[in-house]
Design a protein that fits this description.
Length: 316
């Protein structure tokens, strides 16, 4: 499998990232372990989590996903097979990107993850109350201490990213080398108009989140009844409209042509986008993971990409 590099770092990753928000939420500990084992067996290596996962679940505080990954590292001995990303800034008790918060949050994450280094540390959300040089200065200390290898930005606007890159350059601080925006066949406009040009200009790696639109692009939600009682029902409701259904039809057509599932095709379309390093997607079973992994082997034809581009076009 052809790997891709992250910015100017020496990190090499396979073109599909596993999204760890399911660990301890829609995938229990045993299922999570079997998914992670299967992920590594597929030759894949990049796993994404955050300190805040999965604080939105009743009775959870955040840290549940990192804790499961840490237990898996310990039980399996596979820490060195994984490029590990986690994030700081959105956990209620460790909110924001101040230097003091970052210093405390990283140690919390390392403890839960049972490791002494994080490969990619993301700012989970822009924090306009903290000066950029304070945040990047805090990251510099972590890099110097060997706790973090590369820093990244999630949910940043293009203009603020440009500012952060300029501050890093002018002050000799670590620059963001990887971005994590929302992007999928349905949600295209925000990334394509704002962050994509900045990422391309500065040759920054991009890993996209909600790459399956929370499962909608698997094609399993085609009516309101399909969503009833489902953990992600409320998250996919917004996709159930004329454009969403048109995208599902196109996915069905391309999936049939390639003897693949719609989920595989949806991820292959993201992988084919030149500015994208890898889509992040999650699965709640080893069977679902097969559909995700297959995307790294599926090369869409020009006709396939055109079919999907046309169905999902957002220009008026
Ligand atoms: N930076 C950020 O602010 C941010 C925000 C959100 C997410 N993320 C990252 O992105 C990752 C991915 O997001 P996500 O997991 O929420 O959404 P996603 O990848 O778009 O959707 C994944 C979900 O779709 C369903 N699915 C997957 N494969 C399937 C298949 N073959 N057939 C049917 N259903 C299938 C599963 O849910 P069910 O089985 O429950 O249906 C799975 O958990 C997260 O884990 C996280 O790492 C980052």
């Amino acid at each position: 499998m052809q790997t891709r590099s992250i910015g100017t770092s020496d990190l090499e990753v396979a073109p599909l990232v596993f999204g760890g928000n399911v660990f301890g939420w829609t995938a229990d500990e045993r299922t999570s372990f079997s998914i992670l084992d299967a992920f590594v067996d597929h030759g894949l290596n990049f796993v994404d989590t955050a300190d805040v996962y999965s604080a939105w679940v009743d009775g959870h505080q955040g840290g549940e996903s990192e804790t499961i990954i840490g237990k898996w590292f310990k039980e399996s001995g596979k820490r060195d097979k994984i490029v590990l990303a986690t994030k700081v800034g959105m956990l209620g008790t460790r909110a924001g990107l101040s230097a003091a918060n970052i210093a405390a949050a990283v140690d919390d994450s390392l403890r839960r993850l049972k490791t002494d280094y994080i490969d990619v540390y993301f700012s989970h959300l822009d924090d306009d109350k903290t000066p950029l040089d304070e945040t990047l200065g805090a990251y510099q200390k972590l890099v110097q201490a060997g706790k973090v290898r590369v820093v990244g930005a999630s949910n940043y606007k293009g203009e603020r990213l440009e500012e952060a890159l300029a501050v890093a350059k002018d002050s000799g601080l670590p620059a963001y080398q990887i971005l994590q925006p929302e992007y999928n066949l349905y949600d295209r406009e925000g990334y394509e108009t704002d962050l994509e040009p900045v990422a391309q200009k500065h040759k920054i790696a991009v890993v996209t989140y909600f790459s399956l639109a929370s499962g909608f692009l698997s094609g399993k939600y085609r009516s309101k009844e399909d969503m009833e009682g489902k953990a992600r029902g409320s998250r996919v409701e917004k996709y159930l409209n004329e454009r969403g259904l048109r995208i599902l039809d196109a996915l069905d057509e391309v999936a049939k042509r390639n003897d693949a599932t719609p989920a595989t095709v949806a991820l292959a379309w993201v992988i084919a986008r030149p500015s994208v390093t890898a889509p992040i997607a999650s699965a709640t079973s080893v069977k679902q993971l097969e559909s995700l992994a297959a995307a790294t082997r599926l090369e869409l034809s020009t006709e396939d990409v055109q079919t999907l581009d046309q169905a999902s076009a957002w220009q008026k």
